[in-house]
Amino acid sequence: MHELWQGGDRYSAEITIPDRGDFTYAIESYDHPLATWLHDAEIKIAADIDAELMCDIGISLIEEILENNSSAKSLFKPALVALKDKKLAPLNRFGIATTSEIRTYFLAHPIRRLSSQSEKYPVRADHTRSLVGSWYEFFPRSEGAVANADGSITSGTFKSAALRIPAVAAMGFDILYLPPIHPIGISHRKGANNSLTPTASDPGVPWAIGSADGGHMAINPALGTMKDFEDFLAVAKKNKIEVALDFALQASPDHPWVKEHPEFFTRRLDGTIAYAENPPKKYQDIYPINFDNDYKAILDESLKTLRFWIAKGVSIFRVDNPHTKPVHFWADVMNAIRIESPDVIFLAEAFTKAPMMHALGKAGFHQSYTYFTWRTSKQELIQYGEEVAHQTSAFFRPNFWVNTPDINPFHLQSGNPAIFAIRAALASTLTPSWGMYAGYELFEHRRFKDGGEEYLDSEKYEIKVRDWAGAEKKQLSLAPFISVLNKIRRENIALQRLRNLRFHHCDNDQILAYSKREGDNLLLIVVNLDPNFAQETTIRWDLNSLGITADHFEVTDLIDSATYQWSKETYVRLDPTRLSGKVIHIAKVKL
Questions:
Q1: Catalytic-role residue among 349, 444, 459, 462
Q2: Which residues on adjacent β-strands are paired with residue 376?
Q3: Which of 320, 441, 453, 459 is catalytic?
Q4: H-assigned helices in 178-261
Q5: Which among 247, 249, 497, 428 has a CA at the least distance from the CA of 347?
Q6: C-alpha to C-alpha distance for 226 and 306, rounded to whole angstroms
Q7: Which residue range forms the structural domain that includes residue 64?
Q8: Are 347 and 319 in contact (CB under 8 A)?
Q9: CA-CA distance, 345 to 342, in Å (whole number)?
């Protein structure tokens, strides 16, 4: 361990975990007589206090070193001769015996006395997918859906949704997340825009899980059969995409659990089962689980469900609202699954208070949704970037989502394509994991109401029919830009690391500059945060932290392959308003 600053009594060290799995580390402390001698002798000999005694102590310590390491004789022989030579002044003798080479040896090979060891602290190394991934979310019922002449819509299925997978892969995404694929309840089914008066054709909310067709281990018949789902997984695997399933631990009033396990739920004084609510919002179509009544049965049923899907080949689960369940429950779930299936990854969808989000990370969640969705200003982005990269990274792996079916952020509601590009650029370069929900590349932005962050005609309540090919043909899609971003992420290991994020100074509050380096892979990133106007500034790169010694250096912009000569103070101008405008420089430094 290395002292952070002299006399500060604070030390740090970096450790490299040799492999995946569970390890422990301990801190050893000991008396360091060589360091004590150097400290005392420097002071006392200069003040002519116990000078001869200091030289004798040095002789004794060096002789002890040579007893245990005779190969160091050539280094210490001149030191011994000098310390014993009383014709020389003690200060000269001490100087000959403490050259920089000798001091380096003392630091690397201390004489350890009175050694004691701390308790062993656990540390876990997880699958690489825990940290690195490009996520894409779509509703299978919308992929391949058809609008009929009479205004009705024919639902997409796993077979039609599988046809969309190559396009998702072409954008560079390697994880495809599906909202719940289980049967949807009929009782209190919600209609379009969360209406309480649905029509017969309304498909229901996928998170209202369970009907006469089954519960968490069944497939929604509207999507096809279990065989169709298995074929869907095979197509994804062929396209090098992993499928993530939603694990929503809740039930519709029609779920088999309601009859088979009534103890799983809370009954109110009037005899009815309590439905989910977040006043003024009410979710009459969803019953939350009560963990106090029969904890073991709920745990067993949850593990049974997860094991069922893992056996089908699913290794990633996005967990819905984990913060509304006991933290120790998740620790029990993930400890059991980790022992059986160590490759399985759990993502926490916990948009809640930071302490709870952090607690879920400590309980075992491999990564989590974050506040990035709402961090827009330069100062907010710097503060949050510093937090996730350097303050909480030991237990909280962030996943930066630009939007979700639940969240249509205010900054996207203008529909300005530039802000969509800006947010995707930030999310995909600030952290190793990022995600987007389908429709983002088409700039979907209409809000349900002023002052709200919900989509109009939300896909949670209805089937969306999108014309992907038409948008591409008319060049009204962000997909090409997304593809470039994900390609850059794949080819640059610096973007696959979290703790290497460093921000650099510029005076313009609308321009954010940061760097990421891993070995010889160094990227300098500049983003215009203003989607409406060109912005310019001079960036003052911290060359010492970047490991750049030259005054000028060559960079290649990975977005358009342009080459520039940059320096410690680099002028940049980014204009998102032109047809060929730029919102970001991702500059690779030629080292």
A1: 349
A2: none
A3: 320
A4: 226-238, 256-260
A5: 247
A6: 16
A7: 2-125
A8: yes
A9: 8
**SS3 state at 100:** helix
- For the chain, what is the domain count? 3
In a domain, 266, yes or no: no
Q: Do 165 and 72 reside in the same domain of the chain?
A: no
Which one of 495, 524, 553 terminates a domain? 495
- Tokens linked to 273: 């089962």
500 DSSP β-pair partners: none
What are the distances in angstroms from CA 248 to CA 133, 219, 319, 503?
21, 14, 6, 37
Segment 533-579, tens digit of pLDDT: 999 999 999 999 999 999 999 999 999 999 999 999 999 999 998 75
Among this protein's residues, is 254 annotated catalytic? Answer: no
Task: Let me know if residue 90 belongs to a domain.
Answer: yes
* First and final C-alpha spacing in the chain: 30
Domain boundary among 476, 495, 514: 495
Chain-centroid distance of CA 486 in Å reads 15
Tens digit of each residue's pLDDT (9 = 90 or more) over 324-373: 999 999 999 999 999 999 999 999 999 999 999 999 999 999 999 999 99
Q: Is 167 helix (H, G, I), strand (E, B) or coil?
A: helix
The DSSP output letter for 192 is G
Residues 9 and 153 in one domain: no
pTM more than 0.85: yes
- Determine the Cα angle at 67 with ends 66 and 68, to 5°: 90
Q: Of all helices (H) and strands (E), which one includes residue 536?
A: strand 535-540
CB 342 within 8 A of CB 127: yes
In a domain, 580, yes or no: yes
CATH number at residue 227: 3.20.20.80
Burial, 268: exposed, middle or buried (Cβ in 10 Å; 0-12, 13-18, 19+)?
exposed
Known catalytic residue: 349? yes
SS3 labels along 199-220: CCCCCCCCCCECECCECCCCCC
Q: Are residues 430 and 304 in the same domain?
A: yes
The CA distance from 253 to 410, in Å, is: 34
